[in-house]
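Weekly modeling sync, notes
Attendees: S.R. (lead), two postdocs, one rotation student

Agenda item 3: backlog of single-chain predictions. S.R. asked that every request posted to the team notebook include the full sequence so nobody has to chase files. The rotation student volunteered to paste the first one in as an example of the format we agreed on. Action items at the bottom.

Example entry:
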Amino acid sequence: MKLEYDKSKDTELRNTIGTYTVTSMYFMPDFRDKFIDLRSNLVDLNGALIKKCIVGTEQDFLMLMQKAKEYLFATMDNNGLITMLLSLFQDCVFGYYVLTPLIKDPKVSDIKVYSWDHITVKVNGTRYLTNIRFFDEDDYNRWYDRLLRINRLDRSIDGALQNFTDRKSIDSFYMRVDIQKAEVTSSGQNMLHIRKTPTVKYTWQYLVDNKMLDNNCIEYLKDRVLNGYGFLISGRGGSGKSTLLNNMIDMIPYEESVLISQENDELYSNVHPQQQFEHPLYHKSDGKETRFTLEDELRLGLLQDIDDFIIGEIKGGEALYVFTTAMSTGARFMGTIHSNNCRGSVRRLAQLAKYISNYTVESLEEMLTATPFCLIHMSHFHIDEILEITGWDEKKLELEYKEVYLE
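Predicted structure, as returned to the notebook:
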């Protein structure tokens, strides 16, 4: 059954959560009709040509742009307008099209497209509807298909759920793009989610100004990092976990060797000289599939000279290595996990590890007392709880905590 989104509720929804408004050149009066004419004649009517240019060489790209240029010069004589239309055309075919203003906006951390005319964003932890839309459903689906082709994604039903990291399209951001094709959505619409990570990290002052934490908290984190504490940062998706961890990894002493394993390339460092970054690899060839997982990377890391193990987002069997290997060897661990509070994050971590081991949850939790350990919980781009593990209660069979901060 196809579930239709009731557009009549848009006004009610906008009044409830608000609208985030940006300027789109595609819909400005001087450009809209001229752009549609250009797109219709060079893109909509030339599917084979567009495909060739997308998967072809630089010469194919230049050929298409020359055709667009010739078409515009044949229909108008305003050089300034032609230059701007060519830029819009290039972004339509090879870029993020109408989403570009949202992608370039430094305030926007997440973009979610539910359908051609239903697009939301998250700004500093708050969600908004946007005024951005595609021209119609066909326009959106054609662009969606181009996005898959450009990034060499599986366009068959086998690729109904996919993701990729785009580190080249926009100078200011790395982007993780999650694909949900119409075959798996109850609405029958192609959907996608874009998570943006700035290529230049947010300064600590920026995080203070945006109420993530204060200067006393920064000094606390620095002290604990320098004194060898491990960290588990919890919260919902988009709560700021990766942003905080990304800044904290630069606090790690430069003489320490660090392995950072992550599903998507969201964590990075341009200053630490001994940090190696790895991600899973899934490869199909001649009907055979090769997989290198976060677990494989952590297992190999134990054979190397690693002082700090960092997992970008814990959601599977890799959790076991936090307890039984990295922690037991005295190495430090840092990572993020989805949870509702600090205590719940420890239980969640233990449950994930238990899925692939014979340890009890209690045995796993007790292992966390082997090294100094700190728990942080976040919501809406803000730290709202910090606990430290102080010991193990043998009678109650539970961890003991010291409350450092609670809002």
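Discussion: group reviewed the output briefly. The two ends are 44 Å apart (CA to CA).
Action items: rotation student to repeat for the remaining queue; S.R. to check formatting next week.
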